[in-house]
Write a structure and sequence with these properties.
Blueprint (H helix, E strand, L loop, with lengths): L4 E8 L4 H9 L1 H4 L6 E5 L2 E6 L2 E11 L3 E6 H5 L6 E7 L6 E9 L4 H19 L3
Antiparallel strand pairs: 1-7, 2-3, 3-4, 4-5, 5-6, 6-7
């Protein structure tokens, strides 16, 4: 398996940082836009889509600011890959952005960026910011 490449995306979101944080850090918030359902037991989050589920471990979070996960499959394979969602507020304009850091295989990069694009589109609709 080839090394995955780290990438970062920025999405401007019309939302308060506090509200946005609820949607990126809680199972109920994540299940409204990230996957069909989300369950959590402590640091272990289970993301459920139609007929599949993936488990991710909560690596860190800072209230109102960011949350970082690692897929259990990556951890079992000894990989340090993670995905992080970080809220950034422009000091001058007060624009709120959601910064997404993730890893992808080179040949799947465009597809993965499009997937994030679609998911953040869903998030914006839920927030009423689309």
């Amino acid at each position: 398996m080839s090394e995955k490449i780290k990438y970062e995306l920025e999405f401007v979101v019309q939302s308060s940082p506090q509200l946005l944080y609820q949607y990126i850090s809680t199972p109920s918030g994540l299940s409204e836009w990230f996957s069909d359902n989300v369950n959590s037991r402590g640091e272990l989050f289970t993301f459920i889509w139609d007929d599949s589920e993936e488990e991710a471990k909560l690596l860190s979070k800072k209230s109102g600011e960011r949350i970082k996960f690692r897929w259990v499959e990556d951890e079992n394979d000894g990989n340090d890959y993670f995905f992080e969602m970080r809220i950034q507020v422009d000091e001058i304009t007060k624009d709120v952005s959601l910064m997404v850091t993730d890893y992808s295989e080179d040949d799947e990069m465009d597809e993965n960026k499009m997937l994030w694009d679609n998911m953040i589109g869903n998030l914006k609709q839920v927030l009423g910011s689309a």
